[in-house]
Amino acid sequence: MIDLHIGEGIEVVINWLTNNLSVLFDIIRTVLTGVVDVFEAILLFPPSYVAIVLFAALAWWIAGRGVGIFSLIGLWLIASMGFWEQTMVTLALVVTSALVALVIGIPVGIWASRSNSVASVVRPVLDFMQTMPAFVYLIPAVLFFQLGKVPGAVATVIFSMPPAVRLTNLGIRQVHEEVVEAARSFGSTDRQLLFKVQIPLAMPTILAGVNQTIMLALSMVVIAAMIGAGGLGGEILKGITQLKIGLGFESGIAVVILAIFLDRITQALGAGNE
């Protein structure tokens, strides 16, 4: 049997990247730190009771009265348990990571939908990204960006991007050929066909990808607490390592409430475009 040590080869590549692209990693770290800090400052600026009312009103407006009432009670419960600041830190990291994942993922999905060659190359990469255990992403992220929120954000971007690419590609490919032919027969250019016909018709599927990207980002941000990302994940990690069952349970409830809040709002946005 031939001994293959693929891990040693990957380690050599990671070490080479760390030694030769440190300037690039410093730039990425500086930019991501600035974006996360801005979102944290915005989310933590109003008093918690004002922010709770604003979030509940937003949920009511987008997803209806039931979600609005749930958001009001759920966010009040989070603040009452003393996890408001940690929840906003987690939300800032989720928003930053999801935005980066969508900014990269949706254009790649559009490109894959317009080229079978690109789709055939992208598909195995996405399979690799989705099936690799989430903890593995933390190792190169720490080597490139040290400990803290930035490696957590980078690992979260990689982990949460595949649904945005896959569902954008799928949504555009599912647009009926008759509709595409009709648009072409009226003289639509490729750009007009994409932005005025295919993307609007594919929007419910694309928004389903946005929903899944945000949900995966939230799950990964909690795991990223292991490398110093903080937030609710840090409280859960503290509960595990110090065997504080109450702390772990309360912070877990806060994560569930935040997940339901984000899920219902993004689902309502998708339903509104059907």
Plain-language structure description:
This protein is mainly alpha-helical and 274 residues long. The protein has helices spanning 6-20, 22-44, 48-63, 65-80, 84-113, 116-131, 138-145, 149-160, 162-173, 177-185, 190-223, 231-241, 245-271. Helix 3 packs antiparallel against helix 4. The mean pLDDT is 85.
List the helices and strands and how they pair.
Layout: H1 6-20, H2 22-44, H3 48-63, H4 65-80, H5 84-113, H6 116-131, H7 138-145, H8 149-160, H9 162-173, H10 177-185, H11 190-223, H12 231-241, H13 245-271
Helix pairs in contact: 2-5, 2-8, 3-4, 4-13, 5-6, 5-8, 5-9, 5-11, 5-12, 6-9, 7-8, 8-11, 9-11, 10-11, 11-13, 12-13
Task: Kindly list the characteristics that best describe this protein.
about 85% helix; about 0% strand; about 270 residues; mainly alpha; 13 helices
Q: What is shown here, in short?
A:
This protein is mainly alpha-helical and 274 residues long. 84% of the residues lie in helices and 0% in strands. The termini are far apart.
The low-confidence runs, each spanning 5 or more residues with pLDDT under 50, are: none
Judging from the principal axes of the Cα atoms, what is the shape? globular
Q: What oligomeric assembly is this protein in?
A: single chain
User: What proportion of the residues form beta strands (DSSP E)?
Assistant: under 5%
What is the β-strand count? 0
Tell me the structural class. Answer: mainly alpha
What can be said about the biggest beta sheet?
none
Rg (CA only): 21 Å
| Mean pLDDT across residues | 85
Q: Residue share in helices?
A: over 70%
- Please work out how many helical segments DSSP would assign: 13
User: Could you state the order of secondary-structure elements as H and E?
Assistant: HHHHHHHHHHHHH
End-to-end distance: 56 Å
